[in-house]
Amino acid sequence: MPRIKPVVFLGLVALLGLVALLGAFAGGSRSTVADNGVGLTVPAANMQLNASFKAVPAKGEAAALAFPNIRVNTDTTNEAQNEPFIAVNPANPNHIVVGANNWQAGSGLYEVFAYVTFDRGQTWQSSQPYIDRNAARLNAADPTVAFGANGTVYFGFVALNPSPGAVAVSVSRDGGLTWKSQSWATSFSTPADKPAIAESNGRVYVFYQNQSLNVTSSADGATWSRPSTIEASGRNAAPVVDAKGAVSVFYNTASQIKMARVNTRGTDRITVANTVALQQRPTEYRAGIYPAAAVDANGVFHVAWADGRNAGRGNDIMYTHSANGTNWSAPSRVNTDSGAADQLMPAVAVGADGYVNIAWLDNRNDSANINYDVYMTRGTNGTFGANERVTTVSSNPYNDPRTNGTMIGDYFHIAAGDGVVYPVWTDTRNNNEDIYLAPVPVK
Questions:
Q1: Which residues, at least 6 apart from 134, have a Cβ–Cβ distance to it below 8 Å?
Q2: 98 with 85: CB under 8 angstroms?
Q3: Which among 84, 85, 172, 167 is positioned nearest to 128, based on CA atoms?
Q4: 5 falls in which pLDDT band (50, 70, 90)?
Q5: How far, in Å, are 14, 16, 182, 210 from residue 11 at the CA level?
Q6: What does each C-alpha distance from 107 to 45, 49, 103 come to in angstroms?
Q7: Judging by DSSP bridges, how do beta strands 434-437 and 292-295 pair with one another?
Q8: pTM higher than the cut 0.85
Q9: Which of 121, 131, 207, 405 has the most CB atoms in a 10 Å sphere around its CB?
């Protein structure tokens, strides 16, 4: 792989400084415009606790729901956890693994943790997949999880300090309780960020971005193929695997959502939809146009993203689907609120019942568009039901002494089990950032 050019390295440094600067000014006037996420998305390095932090609970009434909101992280600290990713074992719907960023190591360093349950979220155990540490890469972020055969868990992440990141993959044979092996899927000399992982027929695929969107793969989770470039301007990969094992990846450029078929016809690129950059919003947490994608048992693709096309109405969640990956339905708005609230960070999962489940961050319960909840909807054939609130308590994004509102994003996630879907999100009801999950019954 070519060595990083000096101008690219300086760009990375500048970006990291910008993210840190946003955190430093989080207590002042808040107004931001989010782009399409075309830059690298590493967290600010060594965020320090805010000594003058005072909790500011979110306004609004609690919601009485038929399902619980469950805290996933098991620590008793006031440290931040964010950017959750969830996977349900297809062979055992009681077994769930959640990955998240975690600051509980202290000293402003961040880590990736795995949270494991074998009883559908009632009880949790934690573990740390970053076991083969590199001295120049003290921090770890951007977790991504996939299940393989016999319940094998693959956990991908980016390690940095924040020197140019390298993507690692750890493997667990006991469901995520312990990690016996870890390999480096990318080079130490070329930057990498925002990994996304998929498994198909015993082969593991890792997508990541630097100057381009790339893919590498492994038959054993230990040795990796020479990386291939999918698209120079591609960012924020969301891979899916269909019932026949074909791997496709969705991603965004500055103005489009695209799709590439990876292991069947090379890396042909298909335009899914045009996008409009997000509108100005009052919050500084990172939110961009990240595609969220799923494929159902019939091979129909389902894609959602946050979009700023409806000027004056806030940012909305848009959705499109395709039976062949080539011809796509006209994008439609999923959120049904009538105001100017922001809807951001969508996640998509298809259950065994064939229903498409979409969840997202939603500001509709706060007229100032600051405090947020999670909402979701279900539907088939491009038609969705009512928007339903998932969170029992709203979150104030600035209610965290470590990240002070800058690291709620970049994404939430959702997975489907047997008769249950599991939205997972970053929540501040406990005056710090925690990971929460809701087991929503769908039968």
A1: 159, 166, 188
A2: yes
A3: 172
A4: very low
A5: 5, 9, 29, 11
A6: 11, 9, 8
A7: unpaired
A8: yes
A9: 207
User: What is the percent of the chain with per-residue pLDDT over 90, rounded to a whole number?
Assistant: 78
Torsions phi, psi for 307 (to 5 deg): -145, 145
In the chain, the percentage of residues whose pLDDT exceeds 70 is: 89
Tell whether 278 is covered by a domain.
yes
- Cα four-point dihedral sign 69, 74, 78, 81: negative
ω into residue 162 within 30 of 0, thus cis?
yes
Residue with the larger pLDDT of the pair 267 and 255: 255
pLDDT tens-digit profile of 157-198? Answer: 999 987 789 999 999 999 999 999 999 999 998 999 999 999
Q: How many domains does the chain have?
A: 1
Q: Which of 106, 123, 119 is nearest to 71 (CA)?
A: 123
Reported in sequence order, the residue ranges of 178-336 that DSSP labels E, i.e. its strands, are 181-184, 193-200, 203-209, 213-218, 228-231, 235-241, 247-252, 256-261, 268-274, 280-281, 292-295, 301-307, 316-322, 332-333
| 145 and 197 Cβ atoms separated by less than 8 Å | yes
Q: Are 193 and 211 in contact (CB under 8 A)?
A: no
Strand partners, 441: 420
Sequence letter at residue 216:
T
Residue 146 placed within a domain:
yes
430: Cβ contacts below 8 Å, ≥ 6 apart? 71
The more confidently predicted of residues 42 and 318 is 318
Q: What is the pLDDT of residues 271-293, one digit of tens each?
A: 999 999 999 999 989 999 999 99
Alpha-helical regions (H) of 35-142 = none
Per-residue tokens: 297: 């048992």
Phi and psi torsions of 82, nearest 5°: -160, 180
Q: Average pLDDT in the 221-249 region?
A: 96
Q: Does residue 425 belong to any structural domain of this protein? A: yes
Is 1 a domain residue? no
Pick from 272, 356, 281, 355: nearest CA to 316:
281
The parent domain of residue 329 ranges over 6-441
**Helix, strand, coil percent values for the chain (each to nearest 5):** 5, 40, 55
Q: Is 23 helix (H, G, I), strand (E, B) or coil?
A: helix
Euclidean distance between CA atoms 144 and 236, whole angstroms: 12
Q: Which residues of 175-202 are buried (b: 16+ CB within 10 A; e: fewer)?
A: bbeebeebbbbbbeebbbbbbbbbbbee
69 vs 394: CA distance, rounded Å: 12
Does residue 7 surpass a pLDDT of 50?
Answer: no
